[in-house]
Amino acid sequence: MLDQIKAANELRKIQKELKKVEVEADAGNGAVVIVMNGEQKVTSVKLDPEKYDVADTGRLEKLIESAVNQANSTLQREVAERMKGKLGGLNLPGM
After folding, report:
1. Domain 2-89: top CATH class
2. How far is it, in rounded angstroms, from Cα 89 to Cα 95?
């Protein structure tokens, strides 16, 4: 029982740490810049209209999609790196 309480407390601590993580990704040579937090929420989108044709909405959509996917992949790697070793010491079933 005590181990379960320790594990739950450690997981809450890890979740708090992950909320503070932020990653940035860009597409189109800086035409689109996305910032995503550790909860996988996009917190910022910046568009530089000098780096894309504003009339080409299809291209802009692809740039946004690419930047979001890149931010998500970067975030997953960052979270995995931070979690490495932390969960193993919690003696959770199946880990």
Report:
1. alpha beta
2. 9
